[in-house]
Amino acid sequence: MAHAHKLEIFRGLIKFKSNTQKIWGVLIFLTIVTGIEVALGISKPHILVANTFLGMKLLNWIFIILTLVKAYYIAWDFMHLRDEKSSLRRAIVWTPIFLVAYLIFILLFEADYIYNVFKDGYVTWNF
Q1: What is the pTM of this model?
Q2: Residue 83: is it exposed, middle or buried by C-beta count within 10 angstroms (0-12/13-18/19+)?
Q3: What pLDDT is stored for residue 1 in this prediction?
């Protein structure tokens, strides 16, 4: 037996009367997040480009975080994760979060090692 989908977003903060309104609401939210990413990418504020955190510019961290927010929200609303049991939701959501964090950790440390090898002259630039 089919059950009705929840017509609210942001944990019930905004409620809609129909699925069509909810789809438009989610589209507007995702458009706003994408607009923020595009605006930051075009303007590149000096404070976000000049400062680093864990070896990467703050602007790049913002892009990664906003992209993960969009991916999570698409899965949450359009793949109907909100209607699933909590154990399945955790398995689907937390696994990629840990894997992405591990990937970022590995990439940062390997990139720093390669940069230091080239900078200190053990291997010369050949391209």
Answers
A1: 0.63
A2: exposed
A3: 42
